[in-house]
Amino acid sequence: MRKHKPKPRVLAPDPRYNDTMVTRFVNHMMWEGKKSVAFSIFYDAMDIVKERTNEDELATWKKALNNVMPQVEVRSRRIGGATFQIPTELPANRKISIGIKWLIKYSRARAGKGMAEKLAAEVIAASKGEGNAVKKREDTHKMAESNRAFAHYRYRG
What we know:
By secondary structure, this protein is mainly alpha-helical. The protein has one domain: Ribosomal protein S7/S5 (Ribosomal Protein S7, Orthogonal Bundle), CATH 1.10.455.10. It contains 6 helices and 2 strands. It has helices at 20-29, 35-53, 57-68, 92-109, 115-127, 132-146, and strands at residues 72-79, 82-89. The protein has a two-stranded antiparallel sheet with strand order 1-2. Strand 1 (72-79) and strand 2 form a beta hairpin. Helix 3 (57-68) packs across helix 4 (92-109). It is globular.
């Protein structure tokens, strides 16, 4: 165990929207340290979203992220030789992190030409409460709900 908890790093806000959440999203999306490429993909996707929905693209993206973020997850815990799936509440930071990862994962898995196109399609679908990323959240919540009987085994550290 480490003695001290590491200090959270301060993220610089992105140039276009001046939002640290966008930077966090782009950092997750980035491959091989190519941040400028990741930023251009994100901004292209936001332009596509604005074009297709005729609404504020940043608000649409934030709504999509909120629709994807899970509130609970199941954690495996061994108790007396049996493994139980125990539903646990998520801290805010982890909710955001999982939401971002799912949005990116299911964007990449989509059919389409280019990552910007795929990301835009997933963001639009997620903002309407559709798409695979939202389905993943629903499945996670269902799993937690069906294992609610084991909630009393929750770890209290």
